[in-house]
Amino acid sequence: MASNLIVARGGVEYVPPISLAFWRWLVVFIILLLFNFHVLKKNIKIIKKEYLKFFFLGSMGCGVCGAFPFIAGQTTTILNMGIIYTSSPIFIILISILFFGEKFNFIKLSGLLLCLIGVFVIIIKGDLELLINFTFNPGDIWMLGAAIGWAIYSIYLFNWKSGLKVFPRFTLIALFGAISLFPFYIFEEINLSRTVFDLYFFKWTLFAALSPGIIAFSLYTITQKYLGASVTGLTLYLFTIYGSFFGIIFFGETLEYFHFVGAILVFIGIYLVKKK
After folding, report:
1. CA gap 244, 60 in Å, rounded
2. How many CB atoms lie within 10 A of CB 14?
3. How many domains does the chain have?
4. Which of 23, 38, 250, 256 pairs with 242 at a CA distance of 20 to 30 A?
5. Could you give the CA distance from residue 258 to residue 62 in angstroms, rounded to a whole number?
6. Left, alpha or beta for 272 (phi > 0: left; psi -120 to 50: alpha)?
């Protein structure tokens, strides 16, 4: 899943961000449809019954979480994106508390606050003047939005039971994700940046569709089936480690002191939240 950060930093140099997100999920849908067409055809009644849920999941998991990191990659670093994205499990727990009645106590609340403080340390780069003057890097804010979107996607993916199995369900989520992105893609093409359908476009789109798309989403969904939303969400903390390696190796990024401070606060926070 962390390879999505490579796409977010490298791919947007050649393909506009919303275009990259739209075509990526359209390609994912086409590939998955080849293997799931007959199953979907047999379960058309279930699809008609659940299509609004698929649209919501597609909008969150493929729309928000598909486009926001690519937009973020234009103005922020992989290191920032990786650490900020690890706040997603905290929002999963927060949504579970607010909307699904999960119990919490003072220790959990302390953990939640530490995680959020850790994320903001990264966003303001350890400089309180940025917070006071409210001058944040827009890429960091887009990434925070992606983290919240992924939390919403994860919690509802787990709580909304479906009559379809994992891959047919994922096929429809990818389709509705592409549909949710389509009007924004058209707006981007007309008003912001035109897509050039060259070799770079096909390379980045295919890589985005396969590695952080089909492989990562499928494994995440299967894992969630056995471990639940909250525990599976904790796997995103590996995201920070791999993301840091990718940023340093491929893009020459450097670790700053505020990365360490923010990451330590986030890790302590999640420990307190899950502590028994």
Report:
1. 25
2. 16
3. 1
4. 23
5. 30
6. alpha
Q: What is the mean pLDDT of each run of 10 residues along the chain (276 residues)?
A: 87 92 96 94 92 94 90 85 78 79 74 77 70 70 90 85 88 95 96 93 95 86 76 70 81 80 80 72
Give the Cα separation of 240 and 251 in Å (integer).
15
Instruction: Compute CA 218 distance to the chain's CA centroid, rounded to the nearest angstrom.
Output: 14
Closest CA to 29 of 207, 173, 188, 189: 173
Closest among 97, 209, 110, 107 to 155, alpha carbons compared: 97
The pair of three-digit structure tokens given for residue 36, joined into one six-digit string: 């799931």
Report in angstroms the alpha-carbon separations of 229 from 106, 160, 164, 226, 266. 22, 12, 18, 9, 18
Q: d(Cα 228, Cα 215) in Å, to the nearest integer?
A: 19
Q: How far apart are CA 159 and CA 169, in angstroms?
A: 14
* Domain boundaries, position 226: 3-274
Return the structure tokens found at 237. Answer: 């903390």
pLDDT at 60: 93
Dihedral (C-alpha) 216, 217, 221, 227: value to the nearest 10 degrees?
A: 40
With beta carbons less than 8 A apart as the criterion, state whether 119 and 83 touch.
Answer: yes
Quickly list DSSP for 145-170: HHHHHHHHHHHHHHHS--SS-HHHHH
Could you give the angle at the alpha carbon of 20 between the alpha carbons of 141 and 48, nearest 5°? 95
- Output the pTM of the full model: 0.81
Distance of CA 148 to the CA centre of its chain: 8
Radius of gyration (C-alpha) of the chain in whole angstroms = 19
* Predicted pLDDT of residue 234: 66
Task: Return d(Cα 135, Cα 72) in angstroms, integer.
Answer: 16
